[in-house]
Design goal:
The protein has 131 residues and is an alpha+beta fold. Helix content is 33%, strand content 18%. The protein is built from 4 helices and 4 strands.
Length: 131
């Protein structure tokens, strides 16, 4: 079974900019990580275990350490600092990692794309109009 980690802030999968906060659901409203996970599990039984990391009300230093560890572990060259924190978080969250490898940075995913990426161990590419 795959281990999927979702990193968000304030309980939101989307930033509201590129995809209007409604990606994944197809129902026109904001989607929470919990509802995203449930929809995924409804379509893909026994494929993955999920952990959600919501940085709401967490110290900035802790968020920076956690995000930099996830980025470095996936071979990403991005480094988050106190100076670029707010800008970077607005661009890279949500992050979705599978078995420690980031498959998505800052894009909202639909259930089918995420299912394929988890099963195949591949990254998810951004689609026009969503990201």
């Amino acid at each position: 079974m795959k281990k999927v980690e979702i990193f968000v802030i304030n309980g939101e999968m989307g930033s509201g900019e590129g995809c209007g906060g409604s990606c994944g659901s197809g129902e026109g409203g904001p989607i929470t990580p919990e509802s995203f996970v449930q929809m995924f599990k409804d379509k893909n039984k026994d494929v993955a275990e999920f952990s959600i990391f919501d940085f709401k009300n967490k110290p900035q230093e802790d968020m920076i350490k956690c995000l930099n560890a996830a980025l470095a572990g996936s071979g990403q060259k991005l480094t988050i600092t106190v100076k670029n924190f707010f800008f970077m978080v607005s661009k890279i969250l949500p992050i979705i990692a599978v078995d420690g490898k980031i498959i998505s940075l800052g894009s909202c995913l639909n259930i089918d794309d995420l299912g394929k990426a988890i099963i195949q161990g591949t990254s998810v590419s951004c689609k026009s109009g969503c990201c």
